[in-house]
Amino acid sequence: MAHSAQKGKLLAIIGDEDTVTGFLLGGIGEINKSRTSNFLVVTKDTSIGELEDAFRSYTSRDDIAIVLINQHVADMIRHVLDSYTQAIPAVLEIPSKDHPYDASKDSILRRARGMFSAEDLR
Length: 122
Prior knowledge:
Elements: H1 2-7, E1 10-15, H2 17-25, E2 39-41, H3 48-60, E3 64-70, H4 71-74, H5 78-83, E4 90-94, H6 107-116
Parallel strand pairs: 1-2, 1-3, 3-4
């Protein structure tokens, strides 16, 4: 934990090549001493199991504060996102170049709305 306090917390990203590349160019990429990265580029060959493993890995690390995931990728592992209930790391679904954001699919946003409106709990 001292390591995280000294260096700050990281963003993790799971997404298509364009999205991940953009964030890496912005400086979020890191590979730690055990050669574990904080990003996963999803291609047509990436399996659902790999996505689930990456998501679970990022959400269990104490050096990650936010996990960004392309919404179309999140749809592939929606059952895992729906069962995730921790506040930190926060999970944010983001659009990609080819897939616009759809608020109705965002499980975290639906849960947050449910906290404020009885209608959304139905």
